[in-house]
């Protein structure tokens, strides 16, 4: 039956779509990472502003309840689409019809007008949002998080190119979304230049960091809790273990540093926190093997993923957090580390150029030559004065990125999109 969107202006409830990964999942392994943290943090801040969020995600276990209250005003809705476990992200496009049907059925059980706006995350969710938007007569706001065309331009060794079906799917979402949210101006440029997004529909909203969880604290106490020696030089990698994140670059740089200065072996610790993901899942012991091959197993400490809130201890314990990604839409890890007062050495790619102030709150390195990384890391480890100055600047830089600001900007995007849609009432015939 056709529906006519009529003049409502305030956002009361958002339908957030997150098909391939649940906000209830532990970030840092598999498909769960920054996007999960983003969705949870934004939903909580929107709830504080009086805006409810219902997050639709795929049911990944038989015994999951239909709904879970994540926080007051934040509800997770499990949608059955495909087998509960063991369905790769790459195969999920075949389940989108089932997923969208679950979303539409849920809404149909309520009075019309339950959702004021849809916010979809990642292209698979954008496909679902596309149909739901037309059915409900509400605007679709979409965030890409990563883009196939960008990824394919910056492939790491051993990484597979993203398939054409994803490229086409993303192009479709760009065409139909009422607003596209880009994490940084650089991402906005990519949406416009690579995907032909109309400039007026692209808005930059920086992601944030939880400034209550991630704040400076005593290094020695943090190290004692993690079993790290007080006098060690600690280089930290946090994130999913996959070629895209470039952990190999860190290990190779460490090997290089040890070659140049064998005495460093007594003090160096390279800690990697996170589990395998994407292509990395096919070779879960890759980092163990690489450390052995490079002869640095004794300085490398591999840790399974830790709950998001507990990561602050790792950042405080580290001298430098290393983010050698080949591509990064933003890089929440870089912000979290800086919020804890730990400088970052990051690749000069994508959102990391915004997340890190080069030469001020950390260093940006061009390319992935281990020699360049070894030089930058050595500079940070050796120069205490520089590190102390960067530590202060890191805290100040991160303080400008609270999640409340992200949520407030998104609420503006939602109301803007709603106002525009209602100026031109849309009749949808399905
Ligand atoms: N993370 C976590 N536990 C871990 C490893 C990572 O909670 O063991 C979180 C980390 O705090 C960050 C997110 O996972 O918020 C990773 O986000 P980022 O933007 O750095 O990378 P993405 O996963 O989006 O590629």
From TrEMBL:
1D-myo-inositol 3-phosphate binds at residues 20, 31-36, 89, 122, 146, 166. Residues 219-394 form the Glycosyl transferase family domain. Pfam families: Glyco_trans_4_4 (PF13579), Glycos_transf_1 (PF00534). CDD domains: GT4_sucrose_synthase. The keyword Magnesium applies. Residues 33-208 form the Glycosyltransferase subfamily 4-like N-terminal domain. It comes from the Bacteria. One of its GO terms (biological process) is mycothiol biosynthetic process. One of its GO terms (molecular function) is acetylglucosaminyltransferase activity. It is an enzyme of class 2 (transferase). UDP-N-acetyl-alpha-D-glucosamine binds at residues 26-27, 34, 240, 245, 306, 328, 336. Keywords: Glycosyltransferase, Magnesium, Metal-binding, Transferase. Catalyzes the transfer of a N-acetyl-glucosamine moiety to 1D-myo-inositol 3-phosphate to produce 1D-myo-inositol 2-acetamido-2-deoxy-glucopyranoside 3-phosphate in the mycothiol biosynthesis pathway. PANTHER family: D-INOSITOL 3-PHOSPHATE GLYCOSYLTRANSFERASE, GLYCOSYLTRANSFERASE. Homodimer. This is D-inositol-3-phosphate glycosyltransferase. The lineage of its organism: Bacteria, Bacillati, Actinomycetota, Actinomycetes, Streptosporangiales. The gene is mshA.
